[in-house]
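Can't paste images in this forum, so I'm doing it all in text. The chain is below; anyone willing to post the predicted C-alpha cells underneath?
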Amino acid sequence: MAAAATTAYAAVALPALATPTPRSDEWWLKAWSVQNAVWPLSTGSGLTVAVIDSGVNAKLPELSGAVLPGLDLAGGRSKGQVDSDKDGHGTGMAALIAGQGGGTTGFVGLAPDAKILPIRLPPSSAGAWDPLIAKGIRWATDQGAKVINMSVGQQSFRCPPELMNAIAYAIQHDVVLVASAGNDGQGENVPELPGRCPGVVAVGAVTEGTKPWAGTQRQNYVTLAAPGAQMGAIDSHGTYYPNSRGTSNAAALTSAAAALVRSRNPDMTGRTVVQRLIATAMPIGKKAWNPQIGYGVILIRGAMDPVKYPLKPGTPNPVYEAFDRWKASTYPARSQPMTTAARKKTTHSGGTGTSTIVAGAAAAVLVIGGLVAGVLVVSRRRGLDRTSHS
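Text version of the structure:
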C-alpha cells in the first residue's frame, strides 16, 4: 500500500446547489473537461449508483448527504453505511463516484449529484462472494439503482448460475452493471468474476499517459478502460492516498460515467448506454480492441450526447451480445428472435466492429491544458490484492 499522506485542504464555501470544485490533482476530471464540457449537461442528478463493496462510511464529510441506507450482507445492522475494510475500499469507490468536496481532502467525484446505495460484503476470507454479490445485485435492482458498481474480484473460470441469473434479473430491469477487470495482469492473470460474466462491463485501467496499467488483467472479457493508476484516493477515515492504482478505480469512474449518461438521457435504455460508452471510446494503438483496455478509454462527453455524436444503425454492442447468447443457450424457449421494431429500438446488432464515431473528434472534447483524455487512469491503494478488491 502506498504511504498515506493526509493533505490539508482549504474547502471554499460554495453557494447552495453549486457543483464542488475538484482538487488540483484530480487530473482525470480535467482531462475529461468535466467542469466545462460534462457538468453543464449532467452531474448525475436523479441517479442511484449501488456500490457492492466493503461498505461506505456515510459520516465522512466528503460524502455528506450522498449515501443512502443500504444493505449489510456481512451480518451486521449497518445498512452498508460503515466500511469494514482497513483501507476503506468501498468508501474510496463511493468518493470517486459521488464525492462532495469538503472534509480535509476536498475530494470530488465524477457524478457529484448521484446517490450512493452501499451494499456491504464480508471480508474475502469469510468465503466465496458470488452468492452474496448475486443477492446484492437483486436487492439493488429492487431499490431502483440504475447503475451497479462492483469493484471486487473473485478468481473463477466460470460465472456461477446464481450470479448469472441475478445479472439477467438486473438487465431485465434496465440496470447497467460495471465491474473491475482485475489487477493480476503481471501474475497468474486468472479470470475474475463478476467482471468475466456476460452482461457486465469489465473495466481495465490506464495510466496518466494513456497507457495500459501494468497490473490490469489481460482477458477476453475486458470491455473498456478508464483512469486507474497514478491518482489520488481517500479512505473511510478521510485520509488521502496520492498514488492509488488498480482497476477498482477505473470501474468506479465508469459507473459514474454511466450515471452521467443516464441522468442526461433519462429515456435511454441501459443497453444503449453501454453501446454508446463502447462506440465513443478512444482506442489506444492500432487495433480496435485489446485484452487490457478493451475498446478503449471512455470519453464521457461523446457518450452522453447522442445528438452531436450519433451512432450508425447496427453499431455493435458486444457486452449485450454476449449476454443475449448466454440467455439463448440457457433459456432457449424464452429467447425468441427480436422483432424488427425491437431491434431498431435497441440499435443492437451482432459483430465486434470498431467504434462508429471518429475517435479524433470524440477525443477533442477531452483535450485540456495539454492533457488528452486518453491519458486517463485510476487505481487504488491496495489494488494488488486479487483475492478481494480489484
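Residues 247-264 form the longest helix (18 residues). The longest strand covers residues 48-53.
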